[in-house]
Amino acid sequence: MATLLDRLAAKDWSGVAAMVHPRTLEGFRASQIRTARATERARAEPPQVGPPDAPPEVRAWFEAQRKKHEALFATALEAELSGAQTLAELETLPAAAVFARWLAANDPRERVARVLAARGVTSPAQQGAAEPFAEQRRVLGAVLEDDSTASVVFVAGPAAPGQGDPERRKGVATFRRTEAGWRLWDGWGETGIFPGSFAIGFVGGGEDVEPELRRAAERVVSWPAGAAPAGHARIDGYPGGGRPPRGLVVEGVGADGAVTRVTIPPEAFQELIQILAPWDAAVPAAPPGPGPEGAAGGRPEGGA
To answer: Which of 15, 234, 279, 289 lies in disulfide reach of 7, CB 3.0 to 4.6 Å?
Structure first.
């Protein structure tokens, strides 16, 4: 914990990311990509342009709103992840780099420094005006829960001198042992360990989602012949570790026994979810199948 705090104080963003558990970093990366994809969808929605017969001043107002809309979504990703300007670029970054960029973009000292730079304040002495916005974190103690888990209690508060003795906010950080040493997993409390974050784990999720992903990868949804050919759908080629599978395989069997197979790549999953989500409450769930060859939930022989 002391090493992590030293690196945080020194604004060594990559060094801080190296002290975070790999699964927590992967969860953070996934959440950032989900947010960026939602932003891209919102950006793609055409803004209102006003009725064609509206007075000129009304149409001018709608045009101004359109420009604000474009400017907002053009800068949202870069503001959240320093230096990443497109979703495609974000998706190529490893988890540690995504988190390091998030730290650089959201640290209060960096935010103030960017505001000062935009106003032409660039000298190191003047940039030092950002330091009072830093928060100081101090470890109170640690408890070893078992051989692989430790909890660290810390306090956080303003680092600027002359502010008396303000109430310090407390937090608890959970660390887990890895082959590389102790790494931050998640935590809770009145404050986050990282300035600008509301939760110490910053992703709500050192939570281990691997079992859930494994269950989803093993599930097969089947349907009998009816309005559409009989068939089934399943995840193909899940490599583990939260990484994307090869795709979603959908197979249909025609009346002549011919099998039609389509593989939907993981890049299309989000759009597919958007298409299916509105039907969640409108379409009743299929009952579980009786066995490996049954209906929804069954697993045909040889399924991946």
So the answer is: 15
Helix (DSSP H) and strand (DSSP E) numbers for the chain: 10, 8
Predicted pLDDT at 294: 38
Do residues 216 and 299 lie in contact, with contact meaning Cβ atoms separated by under 8 Å?
no
Give, for 183, the enclosing helix (H) or strand (E): strand 181-189
d(CA 9, CA 16): 10
d(CA 247, CA 218) in angstroms, rounded, equals 13
**H or E element in which residue 63 lies:** helix 56-80
pTM for the model: 0.59
Instruction: Please give the single-letter amino acid code of residue 20.
Output: V
The torsion region of residue 182 among left (phi > 0), alpha (psi -120 to 50) and beta comes to beta
Instruction: Residue 178: name the closest of 21, 69, 29, 300 by CA.
Output: 21
Q: For residues 148 and 191, give the distance between their C-alpha atoms in angstroms, rounded to a whole number.
A: 24
Q: Per-residue pLDDT averaged across 279-288, rounded? A: 60
Q: In this predicted model, what pLDDT tens digit does every residue of 169-190 receive, in sequence order?
A: 788 888 999 999 999 988 666 5
pLDDT digits (tens, 9 = 90+) for 258-274: 889 999 988 888 778 77
